[in-house]
Each structure stands twice: as C-alpha cells, then as structure tokens.
C-alpha cells in the first residue's frame, strides 16, 4: 500500500481572499494537473489524507478547521498555502484575525506567497507526500507495537 | 403535510471553494426557506485604514478579493484621486481599462468552469480553466502577478505596456476568442446544460430591481444597468452596450456572462487602438481631505467604495459595498421553492464571492 501514489486532498478556505483558492484549483486543472500524481480533490474529510488550508483563521473559521482536521483519518498532513495561512500576512493586524493556521492545528508544510503560485503549491504538496509516507511507517509501527502489547497482556490474563 | 427538515449547506462544501453556510429548510425535496449565516471569512479590513498609510492601503484593497483584485485596487485609487483632485494621465486610464477587462474575462471563464462543475460536466470545467490560463499568461506578462496584480497606484499605474506588446495581446486575444467560442457554444446549445439551467431560479426584472441586485444577475432579468456607462477610466471613449437577457433564469445569467467575455475582448481591442502616448503616473504628495463615493462595474456587478479623509496620512473611514452582498437577498429569494438538486446551480449563478461579502 502506497499512500504516496494516490493521496486525496481536502481544501478549506479559512479566511482567504480567494487568490490562493483559485490557485489551488488551478493546480488541479489541465495546465498544471496535480491529478497526474493521483491526487484528487475531495469534499469529504473522511476520505482525505492531505489538508490544504488557505487564509488565516478567524473567530468563526477556527472551529471549522479543527473539525475537519479531527475528522480526517490518521496519518494526515496539513499544508498551509499562502502567507495568510502561514502568519496572517497583510491581515495580521485585523481585529478578527487570530493568526496563521498553526494557532489551531499543527502544520507540516508552509507554502509562502501572495497569492501562492500553482508551482509552489504543487511543490508543497509533493513535500507533504514524503511526510505522509514517513508518518504512515510510524503509524504502522505504533499499531503493531500496540497489538503486540495487547497480545502479551492477554497471554498473562492481565487485562481481564 | 410533509415533514420539515433543516439541511445544513456548508461552510465546507465541495461545490464552492469558499465557505458559505446556509440552513436549507426543506419539505420533501423542496426548499421552503434558506437562511444564510456569514462571518467565516470576516477579517475586518475596513478598520485597517486606521493603521495603514492611505497609499499603502491599495495593497489591502486589492486583497479584499483575489478574483477581481485589480478592480478593487482601481476603485480605491479612483476614490482617493477624486478626494485629492488628482488628474490621472490618459494613458494610465486606458491601461487600467485593459487590465480591468482582462480580469473580467478571467473571472467569467472561471465562473463558467465552476458552473460546469456544479452541474457535473467535468470536461467542460477543465476546458474553461485551460482557456483561462491563456488570459492569465497575458496578465502575468504585463503585471508580474497571476491573480493579485499590484499594478494600480494612486495617481496612475505602476507598469506600462508598450505598443508592440499591446498589438501582440490583441492578436493573442483574438486567437483565444475563437477557442472560447468553441467552448461557450456548449453552454449555449448543449441539451443537458439547458436542461439543468433553463427555468431554474427565475427572477423577474421588477423583482430583481426591487431586491437591489447588480451586475449579470440584474442584466439577465432584462434591466440594462452597467456601472461602466458612468464613464470612469477610459470607458467614456469606448463604444459598448450593456449585455441584456430577458428570461431571468440560470441559463440567462450564463448567457450574459458568455456574451460579456466577448464584449470585454472587443473593449480591449478598442482601448488598444485608441490608447494615447504619454506619462503613466503623476507624483502624489500631501494627504487627502474630504469624502467620495466611487463606483466600478466588477465581474459580479457594481461595487461602491466610500472614503472619508481628514487631512492625515490615515483615512478616517472606509466602507465597501460589494456586488455579491447586494445579490444575497436575491439568492435567498431564488432558493425558495427550488429543489435540493438545483441549490448548487442557483448559488453559483449568483457568482458568490464570499471574501467580498465579508471582507
């Protein structure tokens, strides 16, 4: 099983100005064509491996970002696209902006730019693939270890 | 009596890249009421004028919305220029017109693609976005940016387009226009597209006018209202008529946008022929004092900027009434009585720009 070969992404616009959003979609369309890597943009968090967030978080959207992140199955990777998602950017001083996406959920890859270009978005997602693969190995190892521990406990009737 | 259900739509929904939340109150398959709740993209950038210099604020104004970013910057510049009484060079006005029309073409192509995606015509979606890249190439070659141009400033524009490049742009646009026509014919003539869009979300002219709708939504209901007719920038010297359709349904809104693409390409051609030589910017000194309402026709309709200044480097008050905000009541009204399957189509034909609404 290779996650690297067919990761699905979910995109959410936290408070982006649309600039990065249309570039995320543009990178899926024929000119840049992220789908050639087997990447599909899905609307369902339960199907997704990579979470692409654009824009900084505000009072309303931070809960939505957290909900989507929590619903995604493990292992998962978060890519923050655009300078707003990274640090708040030009809107950092606005009263309703809490800051970058990393104030709510852990971020693995930061893609800077205003708006981030499709090339750099693709580059960021390819970087996320490596992290995803590494995380998958760790995830499997942890699972095997947990199973082994449970077996051991059962053998000595310790978990009755 | 059938049972009433409330179906939440959004904020994270596959049909739109942006977060909009609607509570759809339904009876069986019919929507009886749609209750929008907004605030997912609110940043509060109107208040940012108190912290940023009025000349630097052009950058913030451009980032109200990434789709019609140039027009936002242009409207802000127009407002401040009027307050300060700056005479912008004629060539700069023409250049602004060219970039504004280029962004209209790219916005409408993007909308056509998203609309095709909403009714499940994937290859049409991909085709529209492929054509849009041609327009973005021109924008990138002339301004350096793809979606945020940064080429407008108070007192003129930052970059010039020389004569040969302008000629090349017009030739390239003619070439792209032929390809666009090939794709838009599908929207106009295809049976399945008409089946999904015709007689869906119908709104009469009087109703559209009473609800205060603007832009393609209003023009699709037969009201010829286009803020470009006021004659800002170079539009007073160009020949065009507002695109009007009569039937007021989703397909009419689609036809208006298709025809506007070709109108914009024609306007760019006219502007290129009439563009005078000369300076592209004047030096701006001092600080504005006074107030002004600036109006510009964006791809989604008329935007209104209010600027109030009191002679300091920071503006006192800045207010934006964006086109989608004016179209929201119409959207809620059109959703009433629609079937659940048509909801994404109706929402999309308004061409909602959530980051514009909430700023």
Order of helices and strands of chain A: EHEEEHEHEEH
Beta-strand content bin of chain A: 15-25%
Strand order of the largest sheet of chain A: 2-1-3-5-7
CATH-defined fold name of chain A: Rossmann fold
At the fold tier of CATH, the topology name of chain B is: Cytochrome-c3 Hydrogenase, chain B
**Number of helices in the DSSP assignment of chain B:** 12
Number of domains of chain A: 1
Structure classification of chain B: alpha+beta
**Helical fraction of chain B:** 40-55%
SSE pattern of chain B, N- to C-terminal: EEEHHHHEEHHHHHEEEHHH
Kindly report the average pLDDT value of chain A. Answer: 85
- CATH hierarchy, class of chain A: Alpha Beta
**Count of strand segments of chain B:** 8
CATH class of chain B: Mainly Alpha
Assembly state: heterodimer
Strand order, largest beta sheet of chain B: 1-2-3
CATH architecture of chain A, please?
A: 3-Layer(aba) Sandwich
Main beta-sheet strand count, sense and barrel state of chain A: 5 strands, parallel
| Outline of chain B | globular
Describe the overall structure.
Chain A is built from four helices and seven strands. Chain A is an alpha/beta fold and 160 residues long. Chain A has one domain: Rossmann fold, CATH 3.40.50. In chain A, helix 1 links the parallel strand 1 and strand 2. Chain B is an alpha+beta fold and 359 residues long. Chain B has one domain: Cytochrome-c3 Hydrogenase, chain B. Helices cover 47% and strands 14% of the residues of chain B. Chain B contains twelve helices and eight strands. In chain B, strand 7 and strand 8 form a beta hairpin. At the A-B interface, strand 1, helix 1 and helix 2 of A face helix 4 of B.
């Amino acid at each position: 099983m290779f996650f690297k070969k067919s990761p699905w992404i979910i995109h959410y616009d936290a408070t982006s100005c649309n600039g990065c959003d249309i570039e995320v979609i543009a990178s899926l369309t024929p000119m840049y064509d992220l789908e050639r890597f087997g990447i599909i943009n899905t609307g369902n968090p339960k199907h997704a491996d990579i979470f692409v967030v654009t824009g900084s978080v505000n009072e309303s959207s931070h809960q939505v970002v957290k909900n989507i992140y929590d619903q995604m199955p493990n292992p998962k990777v978060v890519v923050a696209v655009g300078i707003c998602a990274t640090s708040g950017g030009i809107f950092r001083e606005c009263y309703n902006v809490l800051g970058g996406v990393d104030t709510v959920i852990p971020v693995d890859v930061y893609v800077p730019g205003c708006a981030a270009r499709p090339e750099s978005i693709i580059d960021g997602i390819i970087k996320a693939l490596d992290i995803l693969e590494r995380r998958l190995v760790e995830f499997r190892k942890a699972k095997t270890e947990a199973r082994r521990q449970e077996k051991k406990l059962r053998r000595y009737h310790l978990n009755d | 009596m059938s049972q009433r259900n409330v179906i939440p739509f959004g904020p994270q929904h596959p049909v739109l890249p942006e977060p909009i939340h609607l509570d759809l109150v339904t009876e069986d398959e019919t929507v009886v009421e749609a209750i929008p709740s907004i605030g997912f993209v609110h940043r509060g950038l109107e208040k940012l004028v108190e912290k940023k210099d009025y000349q630097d604020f052009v950058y913030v104004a451009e980032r109200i919305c990434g789709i019609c970013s140039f027009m936002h910057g242009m409207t802000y510049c127009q407002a401040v220029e009027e307050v300060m009484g700056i005479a912008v060079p004629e060539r700069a006005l023409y250049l602004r017109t060219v970039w504004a029309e280029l962004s209209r073409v790219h916005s409408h192509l993007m909308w056509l693609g998203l609309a095709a995606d909403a009714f499940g015509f994937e290859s049409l979606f991909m085709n529209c976005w492929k054509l849009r890249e041609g327009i973005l190439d021109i924008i990138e070659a002339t301004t350096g940016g793809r979606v945020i141009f940064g080429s407008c400033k108070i007192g003129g524009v930052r970059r010039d387009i020389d004569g040969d490049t302008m000629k090349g742009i017009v030739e390239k646009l003619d070439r792209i226009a032929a390809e666009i026509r090939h794709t838009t014919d599908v929207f106009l003539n295809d049976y399945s597209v008409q089946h999904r869009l015709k007689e869906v979300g119908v709104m009469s002219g009087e109703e559209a006018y009473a609800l205060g709708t603007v832009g393609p939504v209003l023009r699709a209901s037969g009201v010829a209202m286009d803020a470009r007719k006021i004659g800002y920038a170079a539009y007073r010297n160009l020949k065009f008529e507002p695109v009007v359709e009569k039937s007021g349904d989703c397909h009419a809104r689609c036809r208006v946008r298709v025809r506007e693409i070709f109108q914009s390409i024609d306007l760019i051609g006219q502007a290129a022929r009439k563009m005078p030589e000369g300076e592209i910017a004047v030096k701006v000194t001092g600080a504005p004092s006074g107030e002004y309402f600036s109006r510009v026709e964006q791809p989604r309709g008329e935007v209104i900027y209010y600027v109030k200044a009191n002679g300091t480097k920071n503006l006192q008050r800045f207010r934006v009434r964006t086109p989608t905000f004016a179209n929201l009541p119409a959207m809620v009204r059109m959703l009433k009585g629609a079937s659940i399957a048509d909801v994404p189509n109706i929402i999309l034909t308004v061409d909602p720009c959530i980051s514009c609404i909430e700023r």
